């Protein structure tokens, strides 16, 4: 399925009339062992990664607990049919028994207020340290891995950057949560030796998803919420935000940023 379409529009001012590339947005049902768990509006790309990443970051199943993923096109959208091993299926069944209401973007499958604000387990111990120039390089490198954004200027991106290999993976989606889930699914395993880089603001649920990946550093181009900062502190994640080519701000665990020539306000 295509990820963008050229549509006609009227233009005023300096823009020339003609076609504008716009990202596709389709309903994606996430189903486990034949039963739908959540429905997300998403970009129809990297959906296998989305299935694995959503399962991991929502605490439903790790990649090794998934037997298979099938992407099925339907008249109403796309159905991701995910088949779980028995222990993961039993956990999901118990979770469903206690669900109290509908779910929404970023909190799909959450069954209580306490679960929505749950503190994740601290990320694994990591020796990762970044210089200020490396932080700014990571933010800059993500720009080079956003082909759908370049075409449409209407999607988010999430990437994983390491000092040795640079940007080792990046995924895009109309939803910032979806982009991060796709990244986690692409990596398929915990990664304590690099940084997650986001094009979006940082909310509490994005910190939870980064913690599920085991990433010790989170870099974002926009600001975090206060709750996200508190959760990053508890999770042991170095939260860096407002990252620009020449500056950034560190909100938690600054010990991972080595003294290069950083200006501290």
UniProtKB/TrEMBL annotation:
Entry's localization field: Cytoplasm
Role according to the record: Required for formate dehydrogenase (FDH) activity. Acts as a sulfur carrier protein that transfers sulfur from IscS to the molybdenum cofactor prior to its insertion into FDH.
Main subcellular location of this protein, as a coarse class: cytoplasm
Name by which UniProt lists this protein: Sulfur carrier protein FdhD
Homology family: Belongs to the FdhD family.
Entry-linked Gene3D superfamilies: 3.10.20.10, Cytidine Deaminase, domain 2
Keyword annotations of the record: Cytoplasm, Molybdenum cofactor biosynthesis
Biological process terms in GO annotation: Mo-molybdopterin cofactor biosynthetic process
Entry's Gene Ontology cellular component terms: cytoplasm
UniProt key word Mitochondrion: no
Source species taxonomy: Bacteria, Pseudomonadati, Pseudomonadota, Alphaproteobacteria, Rhodobacterales
GO MF annotation: an example: sulfur carrier activity
Keyword Cytoplasm applies: yes
Residues in the signal sequence: none
Entries under PANTHER family matching the protein: FORMATE DEHYDROGENASE (PTHR30592), SULFUR CARRIER PROTEIN FDHD (PTHR30592:SF1)
Active-site residues annotated for this sequence: 105
Origin species: Rhodobacter ferrooxidans
